[in-house]
């Protein structure tokens, strides 16, 4: 079964106070353009920015924004690398009141689904008009979600559908995982973020991130939620073996 999405619980900014925004995008020109656009508004202030996930995870908790505008894809990756979604998941775990607005150049159902499951409050394309982006920031800052009807129907359809059972080959590939990787896989299955796994196992967060990438590669899956499903199947198998 799919885990239920972590719904945003963004706390509305205090009346009269400007909306505090943090920007994450690996392109400086994009960050500068978005900053100039938002700061032209009297009720919005950009309190920080980052060009990569590491910087964002370090800086956001320090400046406590109301809204984080996060690029879905970071670096030179193409295809299925949704590192910005992982940043959203990590930040929401630490700052439940933070509203994350995902910004992407691609109309990607998988990224959309993963972002909502990670607790994103909204998802917009970079082709969005300037006034619409400003409206989007104000909307998620009030604690409301921002998805157009077409996006909502696609996400709800995915949530209602059970995640496909892992291929037998993926379950067989569990033998390729080390004991530590199996331990990390189990923690992925219960919904822990990389940071939470690192704290639980007394590892560096970067080490966990590398181990997760290795686990996905060995299992032949491209998304964290697929690994979580495999972890669930593994727990069920162990439970039957133990007579639970």
What coarse outline follows from CA principal-axis ratios?
elongated
Distance between the termini: 19 Å
Radius of gyration: 19 Å
The biggest beta sheet, please?
Answer: 5 strands, parallel
Strand content: 5-15%
**How do the SSEs run, as a string of H and E?**
EHEHEHEHEHHHHHHH
Average per-residue pLDDT, rounded, comes to: 80
Helix content: 40-55%
Strand order of the largest sheet: 2-1-3-4-5
Question: Uncertain runs with pLDDT below 50, 5 residues or more?
Answer: 1-9
Task: Give me the secondary-structure category.
Answer: alpha/beta
User: Given the structure, what is the number of helices?
Assistant: 11
The tally of beta strands, per DSSP, is 5
List keywords for this structure.
244 residues, alpha/beta, 5-stranded parallel β-sheet, 51% helix, 11% strand, elongated, disordered N terminus
What does the model show?
The protein has about 240 residues and is an alpha/beta fold. The protein is built from eleven helices and five strands. A five-stranded parallel β-sheet has the order 2-1-3-4-5, with helices on both faces. Helix 3 links the parallel strand 3 and strand 4. Helix 2 runs parallel beside helix 3, helix 4 packs across helix 6 and helix 8 packs across helix 11. The longest helix has 18 residues. The protein is elongated, with a radius of gyration of 19 Å. The protein starts with 18 loop residues before the first strand and ends with a helix. The N terminus is likely disordered.
């Amino acid at each position: 079964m799919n885990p239920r999405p972590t719904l945003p619980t963004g706390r509305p900014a205090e009346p009269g106070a400007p909306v505090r925004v943090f920007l994450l995008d690996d392109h400086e020109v994009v960050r500068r353009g978005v900053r100039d656009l938002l700061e032209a508004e009297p009720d919005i202030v950009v309190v920080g920015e980052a060009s990569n996930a590491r910087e964002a995870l370090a800086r956001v908790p320090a400046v406590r924004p109301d809204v984080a505008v996060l690029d879905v894809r970071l670096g030179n990756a193409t295809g299925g690398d949704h590192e910005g979604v992982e940043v959203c998941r990590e930040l929401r775990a630490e700052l439940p009141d933070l509203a994350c607005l995902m910004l992407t150049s691609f109309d990607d159902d998988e990224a959309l689904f993963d972002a909502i499951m990670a607790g994103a409050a909204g998802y917009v394309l970079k082709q969005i008009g300037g006034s619409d982006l400003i409206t989007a920031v104000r909307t998620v800052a009030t604690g409301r979600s921002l998805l157009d009807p077409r996006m909502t129907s696609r996400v709800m359809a995915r949530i209602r559908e059970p995640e496909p059972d892992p291929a037998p080959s993926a379950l067989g590939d569990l033998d390729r995982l080390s004991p530590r990787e199996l331990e990390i896989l189990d923690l992925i299955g219960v919904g822990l973020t990389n940071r939470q796994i690192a704290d639980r196992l007394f590892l560096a967060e970067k080490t966990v991130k590398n181990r997760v990438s290795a686990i996905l590669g060995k299992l032949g899956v491209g998304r964290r939620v697929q690994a979580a499903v495999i972890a669930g199947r593994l727990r069920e198998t162990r439970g039957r073996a133990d007579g639970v």
